[in-house]
Structure formats: C-alpha cells, structure tokens
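Support reply, case 0932

Customer input (verbatim):
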Amino acid sequence: MKSTPLLVLTVIAAAATLVGTACSRSEPTPSVVAETVSNHGSVRVEWETDFPDAIKRAQSEGKPVLVNFYADWCVWCKRLDSTTLRDAKVAALLSDRFIPVQLDVDGDGRELSNEYHVDGLPTVLILDPSGREIGRIPGYMAPTGFLERVEGFLHQS
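Our regenerated output:
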C-alpha cells in the first residue's frame, strides 16, 4: 500500500494532538470564561506585609483581615495575583472592606502559615480583627467566584 503525503500528515497531526492533550492534563486549567477580568478603573490594593501591624490596624478600623499566602515559585499564586487580585471589582472590595496582607511562606509568612495550617498555595484567609479565621479560599479562584466567596465571608463576620 502506497502512503500519500496527506495520510502521513494526518497521522502526525493526530499523534501531536494526543500528546498535547495528555501533557495538558497534568495541571488543571481554569475555564477561560471564568477568567474575565474587569480592569476598568485604577483601583490598586495597598498590601500590608507585617501581620501584627495589620491586626492592630484591623482592630482600630473594625475591619476583617484578608491574608494572601503565596510563594515566588508558585505558578497559581502568580496567576491569582495577575488576574483575580488585579480585577477592579476585587481590588475595590479588598481596599474598602478589608485590611489586605500578603505573606511569602518562604519568608516572613512561614511561621504564620504553619500556625493557620496552610497546606497548599495560594491560600487566602479571611480573619476577624482578633485574628480568628472566618473563612478560607484554598487554591486559585477566578475573579467572579473569588468575589462571591469573599462577600459571603463578609456577611459571616
């Protein structure tokens, strides 16, 4: 049987598709639709980096604390930072209603991440002004779902 160039190309294309599909299954990817980011506006979150100072500020302002535990090597932490936490609606909520804190688990946040039993990254904790955990978002979450979860935790506090 004589093979034609078209048949050879079809087989190569099918093999490449199978290999590409198998490789992409090793890490789940969020839905592209859920990645919609509302960047209309210039809201920027001013992150605290000192947890005791953030707790003092939360107590004086009567606000809950939102702690974002991350690591520089964490791909999903970078994704959370570049999409969800930069979303205009999310940033406005964090700036207005919370004392936002970012802590690197390989640095200043190591001890606190152990204290709060942070098992994976990214992990976002919602704490009352005394430091008691109200809620937790383990892993990456797109802006819309993140906003809904955080607003739900606000109603619990």
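We compared this against your earlier run and they match. Two observations from our side: DSSP finds six helices and four strands in the chain. The chain has one domain: 38-156. Please reopen the case if you see a mismatch on your end.
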